[in-house]
Amino acid sequence: MSAFFRFANRSATKALPVMAAAALTSFALSSYQGLSNCEATAKKKENESSSSSSSSTSTVDSTSPKTGTGNAGFQRDAKGYFYDIIPNSQIFQPKLEWPMYDENWDGREPIPSGNDKLDRRKRRYLRKYGVTRHIILVRHGQYDETHKEDEKRILTELGRKQANETGKRLAQMIRGAEGDPDSPCNIKIVRVSGMARAKETCDIIASHFPQVERAEPDPLLNEGRPSHHIPSGGKVSDNTIHKTQEQHARIEEAFQKNFHRADPIAMPDDALFLENDGKDVPPPEDTSPAARHEYEIIVCHANVIRYFCLRALQLPPEAWLRLCTFNCSLTYLTIRPTGGVSCRTLGDVGHLSPELVTFSGHHGFNW
Amino acid sequence: MRSMKFSRMAGALLQRTSRNNGTGSRTSTSSGSKLFLSTASTQSDRATNFWVAAVGSCVAYHLYDKQSRTSTLMEKRQDDNDNPETRPWYRRYPTLTLERMRGSVSSSTSSNSSTTTTTNNAAPLDNRTQFYGQCLQRQLYQPPAPYPAWVYDWDGKMNDSCTKEALSTAQGLQKSSCTGTTRHILLVRHGQYEEAPFDDRKRCLTALGRKQAQLTGKRLATLVQQIAQSKKIKAHVHAIYTSDMLRAKQTAWIMAQAMPDNIPIRDPDPDLNEGLPAPMIPPRPDLPGVEEEVDAQQERMERVFRKYFYRADPSPQFLQAWKDNAAAARNQNHTQDYNISPSGTVVPIEKAPKQQQPPKPMSRLPPPDHEFDIIVCHGNVIRYFLCRALQLPPEAWLRFSVFNCSVSYIMIKPNGYVSCRMIGDIGHLGYKETTFSGAHGLLWS
């Protein structure tokens, strides 16, 4: 409740509360709208490739805006090149044209029940008492790039120092008060990719909060080329096209798996018929901030982090190389219970002193 | 405290009355003294005197303070509200009605064609065509090339060395990005401020805001030190810019205390003031007057973006060297052994023997330079700058949230490429100093 009012104060307005805005779009909490985009796309593509022939008449023209048909992702039957640099079949096509925002980006938007008042009340309840997911993406520390095998590409001494400082900073952020060991450290889980440098960074970070659950290393989060990057420095080579084709699907699947709103909480049934427009709906038992916010830490790699950030904010992912995440930087995204996403920090290295700031081989900022 | 002062006054009055006991206190002119018992010898009399003094001081406090103390919060707001100049933007326009809200909000299954005209209780704007019901079509930013294309001449300063063709080769890319001045822009949001008054001249930083500004100043000072120490690479901090609003000026002033004295602070720039830079997608129909405010501020925001974000001018030697290099490359690739001069005569090419060939023009250029600018301004302005500099749709500006005294960092290479190194960096602040205006810490959404 206080969090809601802080949000309203933040808007610095005495007008209608924010939830009234959300309340105008009517939704129900009884069922979801179906599969996530990636799964639907994958199934559709499998069906198409097995049954249809290679010739197709649908062409994506880069000059006319695309309307809301199909699913988000690579459109494999697109022909031609985007400004002569990248094949259109490997340009990420959003479900609705840029810069539209898809409310059902994670496939968990509830289907409207038809009763506007009920849907508004449920949405307001969810917004007030639902769980907000805070996802912090950490890039690994500086590592030894001289070897080819991944097991030998481990952190340097500087990289280990960076990871230690990052662990301290995360513990401080999530504990909520400096040096208070009794504060709840409600990190739900710590995820890590399957590569040695990320695993080593994660080990060092997790030593600062030993009681938190750690997931098995997930090879879906490994480094790769999530999509092409624009500006691309000329026409992309066949090697790049091939690499992007095989790695995009994996990284997109990792995105769909990790980025979605939290499971909804159900409004109590006897609250459905209250007359006071839902203002008397009894809150759930535990309304402390710790119960309504959960943290997740994902230790992975620069390209993956930048792609995740742009996809979560529904921005063109081909811009990923315009961002730059330093070693052991924090990228912090918030996903509200009603599905809204906010990026709070990207590439935060304020916890590292300037001599610890590196981007692989480059030190500091003068490069 | 005023109440203590009046108690003391009442007490002094009491004492004077007691002292005047012998000389006839009933002739004292003060109205309060008539209530006091002239002979305060017994304990009960003293007790009575005490209570009379206490009540009297309270009454006096309220009577006095009602006249001269500043008005209550609501009265203060009423004063500011009455004056159109100090009224905040969300009070300048008529209140949003339900019909207007319904008209401007999109449903999840939006139609493919844009709808026209919505009911509007306020003064009708000229063109009401909507972009899928999200915002006004005319307020939508139209990029020169459709997303996600990169516009090479985004700042109007393109030259031969950074055309699309020049940057298509690895060699061209490397040469143009590592020669010349790279501009680094650090955007700092002001600290936490008093949001109660509507007049901007009264919206100063809170104590926490001042603390945040101090910590940010220390952080930037360490960065500046590191920048100045680099011997191999030339780097310097150019200037500190600030907007014309009190909270930004205060933040800049406090930050500058921690930083070296040789960094100049430019005059406050009113163009950097807060406002609504672009419509919001997804929209916020709960906020009144968004369309009018965007109409008023959009042009100014784009102008101030162009004012601060551009690639550095290349030096004339670099451009000449680039032309020489390109000519030399053309000559080497040429299979024929003659050229046609501009006047039309045929000129044979003499290929110089290898040991006499002059050194390559690009190697004679001065080393690259790095120039840092610090701009202290406001959340909306920073987010708009980030979206525009990275050539992302500016309507997405509200999808970012930058905390108080956060640092955002944009780097513009000499060839026009832009790299964003951090957005909303708050690592230098402790958890207690992390605020987003009124929201403390991170456990809010």
UniProtKB/TrEMBL annotation, chain A:
Keywords: Hydrolase. This is Serine/threonine-protein phosphatase PGAM5, mitochondrial. One of its GO terms (cellular component) is mitochondrion. GO terms for biological process: positive regulation of mitochondrial fission. SMART domains: PGAM. Residues 49-64 have a biased composition (Low complexity). Pfam families: His_Phos_1. It comes from Seminavis robusta. Gene3D superfamilies: Phosphoglycerate mutase-like (3.40.50.1240). It comes from the Eukaryota. SUPFAM superfamilies: Phosphoglycerate mutase-like. One of its GO terms (molecular function) is protein serine/threonine phosphatase activity. Residues 43-72 are annotated as: Disordered. Belongs to the phosphoglycerate mutase family. BPG-dependent PGAM subfamily.
From TrEMBL, chain B:
It holds the Pfam family His_Phos_1. It comes from Seminavis robusta. GO terms for biological process: positive regulation of mitochondrial fission. SMART domains: PGAM (SM00855). Residues 14-34, 70-89, 101-124 are annotated as: Disordered. Residues 16-33, 106-121 have a biased composition (Low complexity). The keyword Plastid does not apply. Keywords: Hydrolase. This is Serine/threonine-protein phosphatase PGAM5, mitochondrial. Residues 70-80 have a biased composition (Basic and acidic residues). CDD domains: HP_PGM_like. SUPFAM superfamilies: Phosphoglycerate mutase-like (SSF53254). One of its GO terms (molecular function) is protein serine/threonine phosphatase activity. GO terms for cellular component: mitochondrion. The lineage of its organism: Eukaryota, Sar, Stramenopiles, Ochrophyta, Bacillariophyta. The keyword Hydrolase applies. Belongs to the phosphoglycerate mutase family. BPG-dependent PGAM subfamily.
